[in-house]
């Protein structure tokens, strides 16, 4: 329950930042290293959705579906940038595997 509350607070903070400072979120998404960690939002959304199943299954299904769609879209977008060769070689870190590999374990 504590994890769900923390997730809710962090999601609210992220949405507030997205509305009030969209340039900040865009800069994070376009950053060669930080962009990989954006994919943790849909991953944690899917994990929280699994936790909601015993209490409210329809909400869990909606959250999980949202997480899957966002994760797949973001992973496809980021991987396309890597395939085009636009990613700087010196910014290649293990974090690049987060959108395409780590989320699929969920």
TrEMBL record:
UniProtKB keywords: Membrane, Transmembrane, Transmembrane helix
A Pfam family of this chain: SLAC1
Location(s) in or outside the cell: Membrane
Spans through the membrane: 37-53
Cellular component aspect of the GO annotation: plasma membrane
Membrane-topology descriptor: Multi-pass membrane protein
Keyword Chloroplast: no
Record's keyword annotation contains Transmembrane helix: yes
Gene Ontology MF annotations: monoatomic cation efflux transmembrane transporter activity
Protein name according to UniProt: Dicarboxylate transporter/tellurite-resistance protein TehA
């Amino acid at each position: 329950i504590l994890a769900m509350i923390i997730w809710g607070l962090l999601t609210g903070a992220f949405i507030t930042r997205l509305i009030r400072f969209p340039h900040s979120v865009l800069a994070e998404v376009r950053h060669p290293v930080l962009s990989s960690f954006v994919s943790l939002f849909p991953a944690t959304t899917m994990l929280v959705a699994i936790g909601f199943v015993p209490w409210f299954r329809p909400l869990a299904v909606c959250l999980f579906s949202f997480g899957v769609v966002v994760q797949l879209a973001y992973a496809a977008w980021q991987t396309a940038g890597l395939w085009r060769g636009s990613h700087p070689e010196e910014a290649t870190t293990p974090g690049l595997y987060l959108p395409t590999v780590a989320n699929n374990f969920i």
